[in-house]
């Protein structure tokens, strides 16, 4: 068997192990294929099964006239609802809501978001299907049927006036009349129903709780009672779009009570343009509250928004918001919709809506996990706000990232994937966080003892993992991109020298939301690191070690400090110290440590992934050739994680261990 055929089998086999049962159902469907030739021309071929396609590749893949063989890729627009006013809801575009809707639309009406405000128009055509109904309460019989302490609370309770009327009251100011209805629409206006606007979550339930009076103001007693009512009656998320200058022990206790029942509490930052570190506002600055600042759709701090690292956890668009408004008789907006709403009151419900989407996607998620993933799903805004460094929380919330991160495997932490570098056979092994192997597979013939490298990432930003395969030494130094379905999509030459293999990694090193490809040469070459754009063009290059060291290295990348940009991790190659060094994209060394004892000189292989489930990438190392198959996990600053270390294969094995991580539903 020739080396080229072996490498091809490596690529195909690696991808197979990422297929889910749902993916394999396509094996009997029509397969349309594009065959590209070295002269630049191409032709299309169709097969009745993936097996026929695989046979075709084996027969014609090595033909010198053939440049590539790939499936005819299909594309479609991100999910866009048919709501008539959606095209003007730019705040939803800014948070990548359409991309999130491709994964989760939030159609689960058992996800309940409580809107504590001055009332919600429950008869609004875009909201009425979403309004909470207390099924245990018989309306109008003047009895507390469910024994919750409130008579006829069929759709919520009015604590401001101690009544069942949770709609905006007559005599309200313009803001108070519409405020709660605007917020409810941002969170959960019925999506894709051919009318009006779309909420962030299309089908969740809104629980109206009136705690503010006709002037739009309220007090801590009413708000605290409202928080407790929402928690006791099944709310999963509570939105508080109001602020005051005074801390309240009563309200703080109510918030902690809600949190103890698994409820996420979200509050607006306020509109005074003050630093909350020195001028705190409440409830946003109460412990346990997710504080939300307002930014423009492009991520620049709104001129009115409060800020501060001690109270703000995340930011969301809060300017020129279009949403539902009250349709009560005499309203200023007879259409039931209005734009031009500005304030952190309207950025907070954006986050509440994203939280509802994530909760709908993973109903078993805990409140602690939901808080963590919301913060970690954001993109840093420091570059766009140099005067407010780290004062706008973790950044601009991303609906699609929050939904992707909320999948069960990520919440449990990443799975570690290993395979021997040489002499051990091309055997992939999947390890849990505890270091237990739960799956084995060969990516080529069991007798194969060649080289190669793999990395797992989302190179096209579509939310699905692809596999990068770097060819081994002795053949052209190419990087192959493998799709989620296991198809060799395309490849490019990473280095001009055909004799040195390619080691690869990938991550978003510049914070643009798309993973970059990172490559080095294998042992015997200088320690140059190259960063490539998605199209294969070089973006950055630098050297990890001095030009005199020719022992090579291994690389990985991950966001070790949660700043929205991945750092590059280099493990020194054979003959050097067991050193691990961390760089930014410009080649500036950030930290370094030794992964193994100083007497070891076999090289250090590296990878990254959130193996301990804390939402921040860790560094995983595997000993190189000559060392035992010792895998260790470190925090980004070089201390061992709780997972510590384990042996991937028999302790007597000395072929070296390559490590990688990915998430999967076991």
How does this structure look, described?
α6 packs parallel to α9 and α7 packs parallel to α8. β13 and β14 form a beta hairpin. The N terminus is likely disordered. The strands form eight sheets. Strands 5-6-4-7-8-9-10 form a seven-stranded parallel β-sheet, with helices on both faces. It has a four-stranded antiparallel β-sheet with strand order 15-14-13-32, with no helix packed on it. A four-stranded antiparallel β-sheet has the order 16-17-18-19, with helices on one face. The chain is of the alpha+beta class. It contains twelve helices and 32 strands.
Summarize the structure.
The chain is α+β, with helices and mostly antiparallel strands. Helix 7 (220-232) packs parallel to helix 8.
Fill in the keyword field for this structure.
seven-stranded parallel sheet, four-stranded antiparallel sheet, disordered N terminus, 666 residues, alpha+beta
How is the topology of this model organized?
Blueprint: H1 3-16, H2 21-24, E1 31-37, E2 42-47, H3 50-60, E3 66-71, H4 90-94, H5 97-101, E4 112-117, E5 157-158, H6 174-188, E6 205-210, H7 220-232, E7 237-240, H8 249-260, E8 264-268, E9 290-295, E10 314-317, E11 321-324, E12 337-341, H9 348-361, H10 367-376, H11 399-405, H12 408-412, E13 415-420, E14 427-431, E15 437-442, E16 453-457, E17 466-470, E18 478-482, E19 488-493, E20 502-507, E21 516-521, E22 528-532, E23 538-543, E24 553-558, E25 567-572, E26 579-583, E27 589-594, E28 604-609, E29 618-623, E30 630-634, E31 640-647, E32 657-662
Parallel strand pairs: 4-6, 4-7, 5-6, 7-8, 8-9, 9-10
Antiparallel strand pairs: 1-2, 1-3, 11-12, 13-14, 13-32, 14-15, 16-17, 17-18, 18-19, 20-21, 21-22, 22-23, 24-25, 25-26, 26-27, 28-29, 29-30, 30-31
Helix pairs in contact: 6-9, 7-8, 9-11
């Amino acid at each position: 068997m020739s080396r080229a055929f072996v490498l091809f089998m490596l690529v195909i086999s690696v991808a197979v192990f990422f297929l889910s049962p749902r993916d394999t159902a396509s094996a009997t469907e029509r397969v349309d294929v594009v065959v590209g030739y070295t002269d630049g021309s191409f032709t299309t071929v169709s097969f009745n099964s993936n097996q026929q396609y695989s046979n075709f590749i084996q027969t014609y893949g090595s033909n010198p006239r053939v440049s590539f063989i790939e499936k005819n890729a299909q594309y479609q627009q991100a999910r866009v609802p048919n709501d008539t006013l959606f095209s003007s809801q730019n705040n939803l575009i800014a948070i990548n809501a359409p991309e999130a809707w491709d994964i989760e639309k939030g159609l689960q009406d058992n996800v309940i978001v409580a809107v504590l405000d001055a009332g919600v128009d429950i008869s609004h055509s875009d909201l009425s299907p979403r309004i909470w109904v207390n099924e245990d309460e018989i309306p109008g019989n003047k009895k507390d049927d469910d024994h919750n302490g409130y008579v006829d609370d069929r759709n919520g309770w009015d604590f401001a006036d101690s009544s069942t009327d949770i709609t905006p009251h007559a005599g309200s100011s313009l803001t108070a009349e519409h405020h709660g209805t605007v917020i409810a629409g941002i969170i959960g206006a019925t999506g894709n129903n051919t009318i009006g606007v779309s909420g962030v979550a299309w089908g969740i339930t809104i629980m109206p709780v009136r705690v503010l009076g006709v002037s739009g103001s309220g007090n801590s007693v009413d708000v605290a009672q409202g928080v407790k009512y929402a928690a006791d009656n099944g709310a999963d998320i509570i939105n508080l779009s109001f602020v005051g200058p005074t801390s309240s022990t009563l309200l703080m206790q109510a918030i902690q009570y809600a949190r103890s029942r698994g409820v996420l509490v979200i509050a607006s930052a306020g509109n005074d343009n003050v630093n909350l570190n020195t001028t705190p506002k409440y409830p946003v600055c109460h412990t346990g509250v997710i504080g939300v600042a307002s930014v423009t759709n492009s991520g620049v701090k709104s001129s009115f928004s409060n800020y501060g690292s001690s109270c703000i956890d995340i930011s969301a668009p809060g300017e020129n918001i279009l949403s539902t408004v009250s349709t009560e008789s005499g309203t200023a907006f007879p259409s039931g919709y209005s734009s031009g709403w500005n304030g952190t009151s309207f950025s907070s419900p954006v986050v509440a809506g994203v939280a509802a989407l994530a909760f709908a996607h993973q109903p078993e998620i805990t409140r602690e996990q939901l808080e963590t993933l919301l913060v970690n799903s954001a993109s840093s805004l420091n570059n766009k706000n140099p005067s407010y460094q780290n004062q706008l929380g973790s950044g601009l919330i991303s609906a699609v990232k929050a939904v992707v991160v909320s999948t069960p495997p990520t919440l449990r932490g990443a799975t570690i994937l290993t395979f021997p570098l040489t002499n051990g056979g091309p055997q992939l092994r999947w390890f849990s966080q505890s270091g237990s192997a739960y799956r084995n597979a060969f990516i080529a013939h069991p007798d194969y003892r060649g080289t190669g490298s793999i990395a797992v990432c989302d190179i096209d930003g579509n939310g699905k993992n692809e596999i990068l395969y770097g060819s081994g030494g002795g053949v052209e130094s190419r990087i192959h991109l493998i799709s989620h379905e296991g198809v060799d999509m395309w490849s490019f030459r990473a280095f001009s020298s055909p004799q040195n293999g390619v080691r690869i990694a990938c991550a978003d090193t510049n914070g643009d939301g798309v993973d970059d490809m990172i490559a080095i040469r294998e042992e015997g070459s200088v320690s140059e690191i190259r960063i490539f754009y998605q199209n294969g063009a070089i973006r950055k290059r630098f050297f990890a070690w001095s030009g005199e060291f020719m022992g090579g290295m291994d690389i990985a990348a991950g966001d070790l400090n949660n700043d929205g940009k991945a750092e590059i991790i280099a493990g020194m190659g054979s003959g050097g110290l067991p050193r691990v060094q961390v760089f930014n994209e410009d080649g500036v060394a950030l930290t370094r440590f030794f992964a193994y004892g100083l007497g070891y000189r076999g090289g250090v292989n590296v990878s990254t992934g959130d193996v301990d489930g804390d939402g921040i990438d860790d560094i995983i190392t595997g000993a190189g050739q000559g060392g035992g198959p010792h895998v260790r996990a470190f925090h980004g600053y070089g201390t061992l994680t709780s997972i510590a270390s384990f042996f991937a294969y028999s302790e007597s094995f000395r072929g070296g261990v390559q490590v990688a991580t990915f998430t999967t539903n076991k």
